Amino acid sequence: MTDTDTDLAAQATELLRLHQSAELLTVVNVWDTITATVVSDIAGTKALATASHSIAASRGYEDGEKIPVDEMIAEVARIAKATSLPLSADLEGGYGDAPEIIRKAIGVGVVGANLEDQMKPLAEAAAQVGAVMKAAAEAGVPDFVLNARTDAFVKAGDRDPAEVLADAIERSKAYLDAGAPVVFVPGRLNEEQVTALVDALGPQKLTLIGIPGIPSLARLQELGVARVSYGPMSQNVALTALAKLVEAVHAGGGVPEDMRKLN
Description:
By secondary structure, the chain is of the alpha/beta class. It has a single domain (8-233), classed as TIM Barrel. Helices cover 48% and strands 11% of the residues. The protein is built from ten helices and eight strands. Helix 8 links the parallel strand 6 and strand 7 (206-209). Helix 5 packs parallel to helix 6 and helix 6 packs parallel to helix 7 (161-177). The two termini are 36 Å apart.
């Protein structure tokens, strides 16, 4: 095992520890080198995660695995080189070969990943989780933090919310049983739904997306949630600031007085 392999394994172990801690892990997602540098340099940042939607948008692609996989991995590699913190990569549904893309991601410095189930048949989705964890272990990163995502709420449509919750619990349990250390259930979940998920899965097993309408970070920590990340929300916030600057300039103003020089 090389020094690089040892470093990656240690970073994965640290990322896993951060998820297993009773302290809620918060991760503001990044999409290129400069955002990775800015977020890494803010006091309190303990890990980084990419946002696939944001990376694709910044390079002119729509979300949904429209960006070529090699282009996605190349951008993730640049981000990995810009930080010494543990890095998790959003790799959508695995681009048709989840174990192989995990091997590629580890090869550029990634020690965790989000992978969507895209509501595939449960047996198929759980088998993919097992195959990914096996590939990570074979690559020398047994503590790889696969954040196995279920799209039960994202793709719920007009289904009965109780059925959606039951589906999310069933799928999440299957992914944990297949070896994933944590599961990701994105959606505008209320406190009752979060509580039901944590009760079913155990504390520090559930990760959520930080969108308006979910319980506060303090309450999520009390409930036993492992992590909150922000997906494309961080890019939307940055682009909102840009749009506001343009509007201010058009109105005869200029840059805000509290602007920071970050690059």
